[in-house]
Amino acid sequence: MPPNILLVRFSAIGDILLLTPLVRALRRRHPGARITVVTRAAFAPLLTHNPHLTAVVGWDPLTPLAELGRGLKLRDFTHRLDLHGSLRSHALRRSIGGRWTTYPKHRVARTILIHTRRDLYRDRRPVVERYFDAARELDVQPDAGSLEVFLSRAELDGAQTFLSSRGLGHARQLIAIAPGAAHFTKRWPPHHWVALVRQLVEAGNDVVALGGPDDLGIAEVAAAAGEEHATSAAGAFDLLGSAALLKRARALVSGDTGLMHLATAVETPVVALFGPTVEQFGFFPYHAKASVLQRELGCRPCSSHGGPACPLKHHRCMQDLQPSDVLEALRRLPR
Questions:
Q1: 63 domain residue, yes or no
Q2: 20 to 30 Å CA-CA from 268: which of 26, 118, 159, 254?
Q3: Measured between alpha carbons, how far is residue 305 from residues 102, 217, 261, 282, 301 in Å?
């Protein structure tokens, strides 16, 4: 009897995309399996076109987890994988019942590295590959592929229409930028973005700035520096629309954000700017054409997800990364 598999990962953009290699491997190893993913409704579109999945359950945080669990319990899963390891996922596990497997988060090693700079990590695998530990009973291994997101023709055409309406990406190479981030310490300073956009345009590129509604201000400031050769699409597109824009770009420049992983999923090369977080945490671009820019500072890492302010008030991890460094990294990216 084919397995009936449940995977739980509530958030966020990057974390959802990082589970797609596991989904792909499960489908190839168990072609007759039922594979269901539970995630937040806001992130469910990242998986809705995925042909390897049987079902995507989008959870609205206004819905009690016990209610969600009661509905899922009726589906009689043979394998239950918790790929989040949070209080919410534990609450859902209690509601569904049964035996669960999970993956190593290395909380102790991460905490020691942040607070003492002692590196006790023995597991250097990216989070993508740690997820496979939760599926150890299903006989799957990571392949050589990267992350995946699947786009419809309508989404691709919508991106092209947007760019054409602004006269971008036709005669000149298109570079995407993602100047926003959920946490301040992951953000590259605005003056660096402005300088980068000016230099990109002077070098003959068009620029599109991406992000959500919260990134609208910085995206518009950065895009304004490029005048008629740059525009902001922040807040104008949903997740798949943003992915379609990234698909049209030669490369993306981004901090350690979900859009970085989204670019990887559509096979767009990435220049990634890393500051408060480090490779040991497992979130570098995975199996991608990518260049990671970072500075070896004694104060890194200072947090696991970024924070509201630099603890030492200088924010050198991001301030010291120069637009000229990004331009050089873009020149060296493979096509």
A1: yes
A2: 26
A3: 21, 22, 15, 12, 10
Q: Contact, 191 vs 321, CB < 8 A?
A: no
Q: Say if CB 47 and CB 150 are below 8 A apart.
A: no
Q: How far is CA 141 from the centre of its chain?
A: 21
Digit-coded pLDDT (tens) for 271-320:
999 999 999 999 999 999 999 999 999 999 999 999 999 999 999 999 99
Residue 278: closest CA among 112, 167, 135, 145: 112
Q: How far apart are CA 55 and CA 285, in angstroms?
A: 27
173 and 283 share one domain? yes
Count of structural domains within the chain: 2
Domain that holds residue 238: 154-332
pLDDT value, residue 309: 97
Both 125 and 74 in one domain: the answer is yes
Q: Which of 112, 138, 164 is the last residue of a domain?
A: 138
- Tokens representing residue 333 in the block: 């990216």
**SS3 label, residue 292:** strand
| CA-based radius of gyration for the chain | 20
State what percent of residues in the chain have pLDDT above 70: 100
- Predicted local confidence at residue 335, as pLDDT: 80
Whole-number Cα distances in Å, 117 to 256, 265, 291, 293, 303: 20, 32, 24, 20, 11
One domain, residues 49 and 113: yes
Using the Cα atoms of residue 152, residue 157, residue 158 and residue 163 in order, give the sign of their dihedral: positive
